[in-house]
Amino acid sequence: MDFNQQKDQNNLEDLRDQNTIQEEIPIPEFSYGPQEQMYTPPQKKGMAVKILIAVVSLVVVVFLAVGIAVVYFRNTPAYRIGKGIQNLGRELEECRNPLTDKIGVEEILLMMVEEGSHVNTEMNFTSEGLFGTTVGIDTDYVKDVERKELSADTSISVMNYDLAHLQIYADEEAFCFSIPELFMENMYIENEDVVSQYNQSFLSEVTGRSEMDDFSIDFFGDMEDGLSLREWKNLDQFEERYEEDLEACRDKMVMEKVERGVYRMIYPAREMNRLIKGMMGSYEEIYEMAGEEVWWEDYDRLIDSDVQVLFEMDGKNRIESISFDGPIVMMDGEASMEGALHFLGTARSIDKVQGEIAVEGVDGVERSIHCQILLQPSKDCLEMELDIDLMEEKDSILRAKYEMESDAVRDEFALKFSVWDDEEDMELMLEGSLDDVVRGKSVDLELEKLALCMDGEELCKVTGKVLIEPLQEEITSEVRRETAFFEMTEEDWLTILYKISGEYGSMLDYLW
Fold this sequence. Notes:
The chain has helices at 5-18, 47-69, 77-94, 98-103, 105-114, 194-199, 202-207, 223-231, 235-241, 243-252, 269-286, 490-511, and strands at 116-127, 134-144, 149-158, 161-170, 174-179, 184-190, 254-259, 262-267, 307-313, 319-324, 328-330, 335-343, 352-360, 366-377, 381-392, 395-407, 412-420, 425-438, 442-454, 457-469, 483-484. By secondary structure, it is of the alpha+beta class.
């Protein structure tokens, strides 16, 4: 590997030595897709995935509720906890990525979602699987959200030789495209009931009918979804949306001093269960999970016991650790969870954070995740390391490491993500720089390297440029709505195949 594994091992062994948790819980495995040569750790589905979603939701709720519920009374548990959270929030603010702040990433994303944008990309793809050949993919993409139109022109080249072009235009009614090299000009597909269109076409007679549920293409979405997503990032909007449930938690919540420097907050099971279920329902609405199994509705109680949170604090109201005081029973008693965060930094408590979550599920298998975060922030730079160890029955089954460097003076960044076990390792590296930055509006990205490596060997590499800027003018496109793609007859397809054979027959014979 390209990094010091021994150092990683020492760090995580030190992490485990400081852990006080005895029971460890189910964590879902990660899958990296079906591509050949891609590292694929063992897959576990079903209950483990459900537990992870519930765990993450619970942790989010607890810490949001803490921030909202605390009233500052000097010399009381509420005051001490409130000051600790306030100090922690200030440290987190100091560790924001200066480069993403300089770009205004959130504002650019909102602009693209709410108004539209112009995106131009020039990418070069090189892979050993292509015998070292470089494939170029250049795209000019424009989207107008207000008029509900988009267009994209893409050209593909091999060793700087133009090979093919794809032109796209879409609106609320149809998706239109042209591929001149394949003699397919001004084709269109109706946005509504795509599967039904396919099943009634000649194509389905050749390739077989689809058993998929019918769906419609929606390139523009519902603006309410974007607004809902922002609610989850805004504490005030979160409080307004769940005001009734939060008020119930506040009324029944207990804050008490355990001993010197240790305080406990107790959230009642009934009220926490109602709040978690409300959040799950909102998540379903945001991501339009209609038609999918809403698994949490099978349980009367996602949270089946009081949630007790311990805060250990020093004399300066700085939080040293946050942990659950005893197991939290979940999902009608079928699962339980324990967890803790330890803030071990010197200058800032969050400069070194170690944590663990352990879950025991209905299968009786103990699984856990241990992590460590190291931060080195400054005014214009940020360095971060994240180490993760997934364990099952005390054995490490998967290790991961994320490293990031960001420099807002040079406008440069570098990322590296590694995953490995006893048999294989995978590494993804990203390096680049920025130019012509207009905060919240536009940015020109120079992608110096995006590389995927397996067992120390580079499998593929991407380089290129990406320009993002506001929408400049109305969309114009040469693509028209003329030929219904799914209404093409056998004769239409044979005509196209004869043209392709006449144009490229000698080349195909050579390749075969």
